[in-house]
Amino acid sequence: MRALNRWWIAVAGVCLQMALGAAYAWSVFRIPLSREFGWSVSQVTLTFTISWFFLGCSSLAGGLWMKRIGPKVVAMTAGLLWGGGVFLAGFSAHRLWLLYLTYGVIGGIGLGMGYIVPITVLVKWFPDRRGLITGIAVAGFGAGSLFSAPAAGWLMQHVGLLPTFAYLGVAYGVLAVTAGLFMQNPPEGWHPAGWTPTAKHISQRTDRDYSLGEALSTWQWWAICALMSINTMAGLSIVSQASPIFQEMGKASTATAASLVGIIAIGNGAGRIFWAWVSDLTTRKAAFFLMYLAEVVLFWSYHTIGSLPVLAVATFLVVMCYGGAYGITPAFAADYFGPRDVGSIFGLMMLPWAFASAFGPQLFAYRRQMDGNYIQGLYLIAGLMTVALLLPILVRPPRSRVAAKEQRAGGPIDVEEVID
């Protein structure tokens, strides 16, 4: 297969992620569902929470299954589950449990299984641009709602609420399954023609491929997992309260706050590409340190901002950093544990992520309710991020005893061992 073909696989990977990332548009259904069936805001919102939880739980299953059967089948199955779950949600009139089962459980499992596929495939096809390519792939996930949200709004106006789920489910399924047909791993030992790892690549990558069990036995797996989870807790706390923050701290109107929420959402996708690109120029650990440092400054000073434009810029930067972790972490896992089993290794990192994504915003909202402002919640996040600055400083690639001994002695490391 020609090297140029890897770019077509990358395009397909982005399309797959965009089909899955349509799940970010759930908020457009919140008010219509409440009005038509009398469900409360919290009942409707729980559907999104369920789907996100199963996304985190099923990523590991997708990674393990992909190792046995290959990425194409997993991607196509994920597309059928996600599209099918959304389609079946169209039959949930006055049956909230069915909405939870279809969109939440079935769709969420499809999201998790599918999310892991392009990331795993592309880090193998792009050993020379691991950070950038995974950043682009996960940016596609973040950008899914840019198209699905207006499409859902138009459909609800013209065909009604429940038929909209059916139409969207078919569209998501067709796009995801078609993109899944292109998901395949490169031949064993493949690497871009004329490319060899630089000294920076060698020093920041492991000397062999680790199995999932071996990765879990290293402290580096837990460190990377903590880096991603802490960043998620911090970023989602702001994302989940963005509109009230703009209204309370920036004195914005409801309409202005809603517009600003849409604008800062762009930072989610932009941050995934930008910080992943930075990690290729520097290292994964250096990019995480810079990202954490920016967040420390932002969170310590956030409560002092009184100007709405400045508050919007600060929030945009926080959201960029939140998205950045998704761009860096898959490449981080591939660098430190090898690309062979990165699907299951990174997939398991999504499990604690699922809990962090729920715990952080809930704690932040609780502090707002108890204190009447966001100051103490912001201080908690700032303090946590300050302590966590040590993690990217301390983390280093795990290496076998032989390679570690050679590195300490200044001896050579076999370059072929780090070529994917």
Overview of the structural elements:
- The protein has 420 residues and is an all-alpha fold.
- It has two domains: 5-180, Growth Hormone, Chain: A (Up-down Bundle), CATH 1.20.1250; 199-405, MFS general substrate transporter like domains (Growth Hormone, Chain: A, Up-down Bundle), CATH 1.20.1250.20.
- It contains 19 helices and no strands.
- The chain has helices spanning 5-21, 27-37, 41-69, 71-88, 96-125, 130-142, 144-158, 161-180, 199-203, 212-216, 219-240, 242-248, 254-281, 284-301, 308-337, 342-371, 375-388, 390-394, 401-409.
- Helix 3 packs antiparallel against helix 4, helix 11 packs antiparallel against helix 15 (308-337) and helix 13 (254-281) runs parallel beside helix 15 (308-337).
- It is globular, with a radius of gyration of 21 Å.
- The model is unreliable at 401-408 and 410-420 (pLDDT under 50).
Short description:
With 420 residues, the chain is mostly helical. The chain contains 19 helices and no strands.
Q: What's the helix and strand layout?
A:
Layout: H1 5-21, H2 27-37, H3 41-69, H4 71-88, H5 96-125, H6 130-142, H7 144-158, H8 161-180, H9 199-203, H10 212-216, H11 219-240, H12 242-248, H13 254-281, H14 284-301, H15 308-337, H16 342-371, H17 375-388, H18 390-394, H19 401-409
